Amino acid sequence: MTEPAVSIKDLWKRYGPTVAVAGVSFDVPAGQIFGLLGPNGAGKTSTLACILGLRQPDSGSIQINGLVGAQLQAATLQDKITPRQALDLFGSFYSEPFTSDELLARFELEAKADAAFATLSGGLRQRLFLALALVNRPTLLVLDEPTAGLDPQTRRTLRSLIGELRSDGRTVLLSTHDLQEAQELCDRIAILDSGRVVACGSPAELIGRSKSPARVIVRTEPCLAAGIVTALPDVLHATPADHAWILDTRAPVSLLAALVRCIDAAGARLLEVQVREPSLEDVFIELTGRPWGDVS
Q1: Which of 246, 201, 198, 192 is nearest to 219 (CA)?
Q2: For helices 122-134 and 83-91, what crossing angle results, to 10°?
Q3: pLDDT digit string (tens) for 124-160?
């Protein structure tokens, strides 16, 4: 079997009386995107800092197989340096780097290749930092909140670029507090809370373990009467909302079939129907007992 790209065993890190990382263990399979998912303060950045050697762990073991490239959340460059100059400089530290021209083209930085760093937008800076992380041809990239603070379009672009790194056969270990990003981008996820791993698996596996019901949202004209809705089979809970009903159920398919029959019998017109399966947010709430982002 292929060795993990990263193997963490019982990692602890304290800052005075504060425990930032409390016995964290996980393996990052080679060739996958592995996400450390958690709200701010969960211990993600401290874990990555220990992996990269930027912080000395108090105890535990860290094994890394292969060359590493990194993009840090608080990275910056000199105001007047250009992307081309930065890539040439970083590339000079290694024996077989990617050329600046290769990376400028790959990360769509050619139009700003000779512009001062201070003039670059946040999205362009993040693309440059990702290019700098790749300059030494690493097999493993460690990315700390790579899309934080970016607009939606720029986030989509960065996620696409990160996905391409996996297509190259590289391993990506990233931290994120973006639930949608973790679900769409990562092959496997470790959910961190208060410095501990509370669950680990693929997004589908984690969501599949959830006991939360599916949610059906139906909007009709006129709105269905409460008596009709409460008589429907498989409804665990029904909540009226803005001429619609929010129905919790563990059998969304059979409920939808019953809804169609009821709407037709009532002579109503179906305006909208949505089915929402359990999410990673539901998983987090079940595991921790509190809403996402509510850090104690």
Answers
A1: 246
A2: 20
A3: 999 999 999 999 999 999 999 998 888 888 889 999 9
